[in-house]
């Protein structure tokens, strides 16, 4: 019988790449999907795996649906990638963010505890938990200082994962992942907002790009590399927490420069700073130290920021060209 994995958030960026990876490794892949008024499966279609995964209806805020999903899939591994994951929205919908991104983790851990505590569990934690950074380079030992309702909810998810590992001996790992992007990144996040705009400007559909704080710095990697680390964590002898990052930090401004130059444009001619996109509390800089992941998991980022942004611009150029053709 094939080894089973259940992925919450399978329709998101990481869920789609992780499903693709696990299928390649021979897993039977199940994905939890909340009911939506329209289909959200475009990423699974983009990667050509929509017919290879089994979707189970459910929601991380509904414990009974999680218990049913686990009973149906009988997975060896559960990856919790579901979240209200956009930091900006977490100030507009803080309660919902806490329910999904925070308490959702507890619901899954409870479902595992009540059904099969031998299931291995991965929690999608985040560098946003470091927020107002307490050390220049953030590692597993750096104290947290969350700066948004999203980051506070994620901190709860992180600690409840650690607590269930220590309390009930559940094989639970928390991956503290720094920003990771791809051609299937949500359009609301800054990298994809930029690469989509670059394509539209180059092809004559748009003239300017309005952004918020372009001096913010992030440690950006490729999502395809990062989902490998998630799987690796669950294959170890003992559960643990790991920082996953590239070890390089770059401003939004420099990222724009890479994206615009790739198609022969200059960001200075098109980017307009608009305070509308400033956040009530900003995370100015993030820079991770992936040393533990390299040493224990043998993981390191393979894709450079230049390769990543160019890959995203190329994919958006292709999309926008197709859009124009269909006009
Ligand atoms: P994403 O694209 O926003 O995907 C989030 C997924 O969660 C979507 O499939 C979404 O479904 C689903 N979801 C939302 N509410 C749900 C609910 N109540 N029940 C079940 N599923 C629900 O995020 P991502 O970039 O793939 O990130 C994956 C995870 O890693 C998230 O937990 C995120 O917070 C965390 N993370 C991401 C990064 C990053 O840089 N990408 C870094 C660190 C941590 P719908 O689309 O239908 O709403
Ligand atoms: O792309 P962002 O929205 O990502 P952010 O806030 O760092 O969060 C992402 O990464 C986290 C990991 O650290 C994840 F946990 C989280 O789920 C998500 O995937 O913004 C990046 C930076 C911020 O400093 C923001 O203020 O870009 C700045 N920025 C400047 N102008 C902008 C914009 N961000 C967005 N989304 N839109 C702008 O116009």
Walk me through the topology.
Blueprint: E1 4-8, H1 13-24, E2 28-33, H2 42-46, E3 54-57, H3 63-73, E4 77-80, H4 89-92, H5 94-115, E5 120-126, H6 149-168, E6 172-177, E7 180-181, H7 190-202, E8 209-211, E9 217-218, E10 221-222, H8 223-234, E11 241-244, E12 250-251, H9 252-262, E13 271-273, H10 291-297, H11 305-325
Parallel strand pairs: 1-2, 1-4, 2-3, 4-5, 5-6, 6-11, 7-10, 8-13
Antiparallel strand pairs: 9-12
Helix pairs in contact: 1-8, 3-5, 5-6, 7-9, 7-11, 9-11
Bound molecules: NADP nicotinamide-adenine-dinucleotide phosphate and ligand G4F.
Ligand G4F binds near residues 87, 126, 128, 188 and 212.
Give every kind of bound small molecule, once each. Answer: NADP nicotinamide-adenine-dinucleotide phosphate, ligand G4F
Order of helices and strands: EHEHEHEHHEHEEHEEEHEEHEHH
Extract low-pLDDT stretches.
Answer: none
**Approximate helicity band:** 40-55%
* The named CATH superfamily of the largest domain: NAD(P)-binding Rossmann-like Domain
Instruction: Write down the Rg.
Output: 19 Å
Q: For the record, what CATH class of the largest domain applies?
A: Alpha Beta
Strand elements, count: 13
Average pLDDT, rounded to a whole number, is 98
Report the sheet-strand fraction: 15-25%
How many individual helices? 11
Query: Architecture of the largest domain, CATH level 2?
Result: 3-Layer(aba) Sandwich
Shape: globular
How many individual domains?
Answer: 2
Main beta sheet strand tally, sense and closure: 7 strands, parallel
Name the strands of the widest sheet in spatial order: 3-2-1-4-5-6-11
Question: What does the oligomeric state look like here?
Answer: single chain
């Amino acid at each position: 019988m094939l080894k089973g994995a259940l992925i919450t958030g399978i329709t998101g960026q990481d869920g789609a790449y992780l499903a693709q990876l696990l299928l390649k490794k021979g897993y039977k892949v199940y994905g939890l999907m909340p009911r939506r008024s329209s289909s959200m499966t475009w990423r699974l279609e983009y990667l050509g795996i929509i017919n290879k995964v089994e979707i189970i209806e459910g929601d991380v805020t509904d414990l009974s649906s999680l218990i049913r999903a686990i009973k149906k899939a009988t997975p060896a591994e559960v990856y919790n990638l579901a979240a209200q994951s956009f930091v900006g929205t977490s100030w507009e919908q803080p309660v919902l963010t806490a329910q999904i991104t925070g308490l959702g983790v507890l619901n899954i851990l409870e479902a595992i505890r009540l059904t099969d505590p031998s299931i291995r569990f991965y929690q999608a934690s985040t560098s946003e938990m470091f927020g107002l950074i307490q050390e220049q380079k953030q590692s597993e030992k750096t104290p947290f200082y969350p700066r948004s309702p999203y980051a506070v909810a994620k901190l709860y998810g992180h600690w409840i994962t650690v607590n269930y590992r220590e309390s009930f001996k559940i094989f639970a790992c928390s991956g503290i992942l720094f920003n990771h992007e791809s051609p299937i990144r949500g359009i609301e996040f800054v990298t994809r907002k930029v690469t989509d705009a670059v394509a539209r400007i180059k092809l004559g559909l748009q003239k300017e790009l309005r952004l918020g704080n372009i001096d913010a710095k992030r440690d950006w990697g490729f999502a395809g590399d990062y989902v490998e680390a998630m799987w690796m964590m669950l294959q170890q002898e003992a559960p643990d927490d790991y920082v996953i990052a590239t070890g390089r930090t770059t401003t939004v401004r420099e990222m724009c420069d890479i994206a615009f130059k790739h198609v022969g444009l200059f960001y200075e001619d098109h980017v307009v700073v608009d305070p509308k996109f400033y956040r009530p509390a900003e995370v100015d800089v993030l820079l991770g130290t992936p040393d533990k992941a390299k040493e224990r998991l043998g993981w390191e980022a393979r894709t450079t920021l230049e390769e990543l942004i160019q890959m995203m611009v190329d994919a958006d150029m292709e999309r926008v060209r197709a859009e124009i053709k269909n006009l």
